[in-house]
Specification:
This protein is an alpha+beta fold. The chain has 2 domains: 4-49; 63-211, Glucose Permease (Domain IIA) (Distorted Sandwich). It is 20% helix and 36% strand. Strands 9-5-6-7-11-3-2-13 form an 8-stranded antiparallel beta sheet. It is found in: Cell membrane. The active site is at residue 182. The modification Pyruvic acid (Ser) is found at residue 182.
């Protein structure tokens, strides 16, 4: 299954790959084989990168799900204006090899949605949380607030976020992506217990990253 967020990129890649393959017809056989192989590899990577597998939460109830596939690179206490004092920050680094479709971590209503232009530092550099281009998202339910950011990186220069203010969202559902690797930072309020540690792997919409 391919994500609709990648349709335009796949179309452009298909055109490019076709042009490369056709140009190979005008070269000697060895060069032709190389160009055709290169075109197939480029197209294959595009289809693989925009894959969008179905996911089922590992646990339901009073849990917060991972918003992104990747590796946990930070778990630490932070004060935050949306989630309050002594919140916990969990940062997930997404490499180009991960599934890049993001998912809602907690059911509720979108009460904060703000885009911030910025730089394109390496995503594993923690200063990217504040300096890089990002989309901030806040979700509120009757008993919980969750804040998370889609953060661009050195390679990732395209954040996709079709969410709308006051929209009702459901945990585990798809909502956007960051193209070609980056990070997602999520703040959970005091009273929530992290269920992941630095170095752990997450799967969006499936891995439980905290319980409350």
């Amino acid at each position: 299954m391919l994500t609709p967020y990648g349709r335009s990129t796949i179309l452009k890649t298909t055109i490019l790959a076709t042009a490369i393959a056709v140009s190979g017809l005008f070269f000697p056989p060895v060069a032709t084989a190389f160009l055709v192989f290169s075109a197939a590899a480029i197209l294959g990577f595009a289809f693989w990168f925009f894959r969008d597998p179905d996911r089922t939460p590992a646990e339901t109830g009073r849990v917060i799900l991972a918003p992104a596939d990747g590796r946990v690179i930070l778990v630490e206490e932070h004060d935050h204006p949306f989630t309050g004092s002594r919140s916990t920050l969990i940062s997930i680094f997404m490499s180009p090899l991960n599934v890049h479709v993001n998912r809602i971590p907690q059911s509720g209503r979108i009460t904060l949605l703000q885009y911030h232009p910025g730089s394109f530092n390496m995503a594993f550099d923690h200063k990217s949380m504040e300096e890089n281009e990002r989309m901030d998202i806040g979700i509120e339910s009757d008993s919980l607030k969750v804040f998370f950011s889609q953060v661009s990186g050195f390679i990732a220069r395209r954040i996709v976020c079709p969410l709308r203010m006051e929209e009702l969202v459901e945990a585990g559902k798809r909502f956007g992506m960051i193209k070609f690797g980056s990070r997602v930072d999520i703040f959970i309020p005091q009273g929530s217990t992290p269920a992941v540690a630095v170095g752990g792997k997450t799967r969006a919409g499936e891995t439980v990253i905290a319980r409350w």
